Amino acid sequence: MATPKPIARLISHVILDLDGTLLNTDCVVSQVLKPFLVKNGKKWDSKKAHKLVGKTPYEAAAVVLEDYGLPYSTEEFLSMLTPMFNEQWCNIKALPGANRLIKHLKSNGVPAALASNSPRSNIEAKISCHQGWKESFSAIVGGDEVEKGKPSPDIFLEAAKRMNTNPPNCLVIEDSLPGVAAGKAAGMHVIAVPSVPKRTAEFSSADEVINSLLDVKPEKWGLPPFSDWIDDTLPIEPWFIGGPVIKGFGRGSKVLGIPTANLPAENFSDVLSEHTSGVYFGWAGLSTRGIYKMVMSIGWNPYFDNTEKTIEPWLLHDFGEDFYGEELRLVIVGYIRPEANFPSLESLIERIHEDARIAEKALNLPLYAKYKDSPYLRNSLKEDNSANGNQSVIDSK
Ligand code: ADP
Ligand code: RBF
Ligand code: MG
After folding, report:
1. What tens digit of pLDDT does each residue of 206-230 get?
2. Is 297 touching ligand 1 by the criterion CB < 6 Å?
3. Which atom of ligand 1 approaches the CA of 323 most closely?
4. Domains of the chain, CATH where assigned
5. Catalytic residues
6. pTM for this one?
7. CB of 295 within 8 A of CB of 312?
C-alpha cells in the first residue's frame, strides 16, 4: 500500500481529524452515555460504540436513540446531553503520539489543519485544554462551517482552501470510516488510524492503515522524518503497572519458547485504554527475585486473533521455573512496533527474538537504564531481602 515516490513528494500539508485521532473522545462519550442510559432503564453496550465514531453529534444522537429505543426526539436528546458533554471537554486525554505529531509538524514548518465533524465551538473548547495545540494549526474547520459533514469531502476541501493549497498536496489522518471516505472523496491521501480495534479490514480505501500515531512515518509521504527514534526504539512517558502473575493462554512457552508472565488485564482497563496495543519494553521487578529487563506485547495477538486484550511480558532472564502468583511490577519505558500478523509461527518467533535483542540493547542506554532504580519496582521486593542486602538488591545496582 506504499505510495509511489513521485506522488509522495507532492505532499506539503497535513489535515488532522480531532476526535478518535488526536483525542481519546470515545472514553468520554461512554462516560456520559452510560449513566444517562442507566437512568433511562437501559444498559450501555460497548459493542455498539463503534457506530458513533466519525458521526456528527446530531447523527450520533439519532443512532443512540434508535439503538436503545429511547422516547426522545433527537433535538430533546441533544439538549439534555450537550451540557453533560460540555463539562467533560477538558477530561479528554490526548492519544499516544498526538502531542509528538503536532509538535513535529510545527517545528518542521509543515502546515497542519484540524478538520472535525464537531461544531467549531466544541473543537475550540476541546483543544484549549491542550497546551500548544491551538497555535499549531494554520486552519480549523468544524462541521457547522460547511454544508455537509464527513463523509462528504466539504470539511477537507475547506481546510485545504484555508491553507491555500490543493487537495493532492494534502495528507489526511483519520480514525473513522466516514472520515476516510471524506478524505478520499476530497482527492487527498489518507492514513487511517482506526480507533476501534480489530476492524482494520474495513479501511481498505485508505492509502495506509496504521495502529496508532506512534506509527506515523512522515518520510513515507515526503515529509521530514521524526528524529526521536533511538536504536529502533521510541522513548515514551513511562507508565507503571503491577500485580500477581496469572495463568495466560498456556501456549507462550509451549508453542513459542517465549514464556510471558501475564498480568490481570481487567485491573488495568484505564491504563490499557490510554495506551495503544503494541510491543513495548522496560524493567520488571519480581518480589523475592530481583529486577530484570523485559519486552512485552499488549493487545490481541493478531496471529492468534484473541478476543481479549492481554499483557504479555517476557522477562529476559532464565528462571528455570514458574512464578505464578508472585507480585510482578513493570515500568514501561519505550515502544518498538505495532502488533502484527505473521505468515508463519517461525516468523512470529523470529520477530519476537528480534524485539528482545532491541530491548536488551536499548535498556543499557542511560535514558532507559535509569528506570531500573524506580522505587515502584523495588516496593515489590520483600523488605527482609533489602535489609539483608540480598541478591535481588545487589543485582539491581
Ligand atoms: P501462560 O499462558 O500461563 O502465561 P506461558 O507459557 O506464557 O504460560 O508461561 C508463562 C509463565 O512462565 C509465567 O507465568 C512464569 O510463571 C513462567 N516464566 C518462567 N520464565 C519466565 C520468563 N523469563 N518470563 C516470563 N515468564 C516466565
Ligand atoms: N503476537 C502476535 O500475534 N503478534 C505480534 O506481533 C506479537 N509480538 C510479540 C512481541 C513480544 C515481545 C512478545 C513477548 C509477544 C508477542 N506476541 C505477538 C504475543 C505472543 O503471540 C504471545 O505471547 C503468545 O500468544 C503467548 O500467549
Ligand atoms: Mg503467558
Report:
1. 999 999 999 999 999 999 999 999 9
2. no
3. 16
4. 5-23+92-221 (3.40.50.1000), 25-91 (1.10.150), 234-395 (2.40.30.30)
5. 17, 19, 312
6. 0.89
7. no
